[in-house]
Amino acid sequence: MAIFVYPSADPHQPVQADDFDKALNDKTVWVDLLKATAAEVAAVETALGIAVPTREEMREIESTSRLYCEDGARFMTTPLLFSTESDSPESTEVSFVLVRRFLLTIRDEEPQSFRQTAAFFARRQSTTRDQVFVTLIEAIIDRQADLLERLSKEMEELSQRIFRRMPKAKESESNLREAIFQLGRSGNLIARERDCIVSLSRLVQYAGHEDFDDSGEGPASQIYPRLKPVTRDLQSLSEFAGFLSGKVSFMLDATLGLINIEQNSIVKIFTVAAVIFLPPTLVASIYGMNFDFLPELHWKLGYPFSIILMCVSVLIPYWFCRRKGWL
């Protein structure tokens, strides 16, 4: 789709594949491939002297396929969540390549972090590859942190809804069922976010390795001091994501437990009702037998007597159950 270079006189104007060599100058430090076509990939490969990873290679989950050195360049790929401000964030793979004095990024989507970083470095005349790389990673981490903060706020609101007493059991059960779906969604997002954070942590550690000279201007370890705060941020995000994951598990168990309590209360009502109506059923069964000799068979007060006896046999178990707190 496009090749962007930074700094640039017109940062919003993509560079054509045929003009890519001319666009590279002494100030260019960042080359951004967005949904690049085969011709654009070929132009970048020829100019930088590397083999750009394909989309299939970027989706590989092996660590050796995501983090490796080749042709004097350092290749790093990580999954990212984008559209984090929406209700349905999506995932995409992004590759970072440190080659000589250039940072090459390869992506198929437009995360907000890339737009922010591109706008920041678009017209800056004095910058370096490492500055762009660290700033881009920091912007990505900020977006991931925003997602975790939003999920934390949603879970806090959901927790208050789950554990407050509802005036009607029917309304309470409806809220609990809805809470299960929301917890499932939050748990899925947190799991995906933890995967991104772990991948970013590995990428940052790999980028700061001291045993690789990729620029001819000094060892790559010069970037490591700048990545130390980033490493601490990723560690704190990983711990916070773990805390949220544990909270989701607790709230899910609590929600299922409350639903079981609701269902048990309904079953208990039917059980107590069966016990209460068992004695009058016994009385009716006795006087419903078709024997010729029943003492009360020809008694004028037999019918009202049996009705009163059945009512008494209902009231006594009902009083007993109420006293025990079963109703």
The spatial strand order of the largest sheet comes to 1-2-6-5-4-3
CATH class type of the largest domain: Alpha Beta
Backbone shape: rod-shaped
- Radius of gyration, Cα only, in angstroms? 35 Å
Per the CATH scheme, the topology name of the largest domain is: Beta Polymerase, domain 2
Strand portion: 5-15%
Q: Main sheet, how many strands, which sense, barrel? A: 6 strands, mixed
Mean pLDDT: 83
What's the total count of β strands?
6
Secondary-structure element order, as H and E? Answer: EHEHHHEEEEHHHHHH
Give the terminus-to-terminus CA distance. 70 Å
Short structural summary:
The chain has two domains: 2-263, CorA soluble domain-like (Beta Polymerase, domain 2), CATH 3.30.460.20; 277-324, no CATH class.
How does this structure look, described?
It is a single chain. The chain is of the alpha+beta class and 327 residues long. It has 2 domains: 262 residues, Beta Polymerase, domain 2; 48 residues, no CATH class. It has 10 helices and 6 strands. Strands 1-2-6-5-4-3 form a 6-stranded mixed beta sheet, with helices on both faces. Helix 6 runs parallel beside helix 8, helix 7 runs antiparallel to helix 8 and helix 9 runs antiparallel to helix 10. About 2% of the residues have low confidence.
